[in-house]
Amino acid sequence: MAFTYHELKAKNISELRDIAKGLKHEAVQGYTQLNKEHLLVALCQALNVSVHEHHEAVGIDKAMLKATIRALKRERDAAIAAGDHAKLKAVRRQIHGVNRQIKKHLV
Question: Are the C-beta atoms of 98 and 68 separated by less than 8 Å?
Answer without folding.
Answer: yes
